[in-house]
Amino acid sequence: xxxxxxxxxxxxxxxxxxxxxxxxxxxxxxxxxxxxxxxxxxxxxxxxxxxxxxxxxxxxxxxxxxxxxxxxxxxxxxxxxxxxxxxxxxxxxxxxxxxxxxx
Length: 103
Hints:
Elements: E1 9-12, E2 17-22, H1 23-28, H2 30-38, E3 43-47, E4 50-55, H3 91-98
Parallel strand pairs: 2-3
Antiparallel strand pairs: 1-2, 3-4
């Protein structure tokens, strides 16, 4: 029975299994690990058993479509802003409640 080299292993993420690899192993077999990343895996890079980096697949870029304003639309600096929100709650009091009291 053979075992993976030290520093190579897996850890469970929320929805995926991440491979862990030491720096020396990564340098020696970089192409292999990049193929795994291309296949959708995340690689955690360890420096003496301490995670120091993740190599993750690039997500497909979101296409942003920029359109010209419709004819007759006001200029952006002329669009009226909404009025203050009427909640009956003092926001400053709520923030002070949430903050730790050790000041």
